[in-house]
Design a protein that fits this description.
The protein is an alpha+beta fold. The chain has a domain of 78 residues. Helix content is 27%, strand content 12%. It has two helices and four strands; from the N terminus they run H-E-E-E-E-H. The radius of gyration is 22 Å and the shape is elongated. The termini are far apart. 14% of the residues are buried. The model has no long low-confidence stretch (mean pLDDT 88). The structure holds zinc ion.
Length: 112
């Protein structure tokens, strides 16, 4: 039986983005059994409830809302990756706020 061959397209699809996002890949360290155990320990200690304190009151968000095991001192800032003492349970909103604050502090830090 004759096979019909298709010629490849002669014009490549244009990607009009000016800056391409980095390829999506999960941080390998976050996929290890050790990290999963750390995450579970942090969430369990918090009773699966956000630990952020706002206005003197603890955030009410709890499972089944999505919760993050957050590194209090971020790993890129030298925080221990697998020490439960460096972990806290945060809801999505508080995790976003905290990440933005850590980033702002990092950018404000003197270089050198
Ligand atoms: Zn919260």
């Amino acid at each position: 039986m004759a096979r019909i061959r298709c010629a490849p397209p002669r014009i490549a699809a244009a990607d009009t983005r000016r800056v391409l996002p980095p390829p999506k890949r999960a941080d390998a360290e976050l996929l290890t059994p050790e990290h999963r155990a750390w995450r579970e320990a942090v969430l369990q200690r918090a009773g699966h409830r956000c630990e952020a304190i706002e206005g003197g009151r603890r955030c009410e968000v709890r499972a089944p809302a999505r919760l993050f095991a957050d590194h209090i001192r971020e790993r890129r800032d030298g925080g221990a990756g697998l020490d439960p003492a460096n972990g806290q349970c945060l809801c999505g909103r508080h995790h976003t706020l905290k990440t933005a604050r850590a980033r702002a502090e990092r950018m404000a830090a003197p270089v050198g």
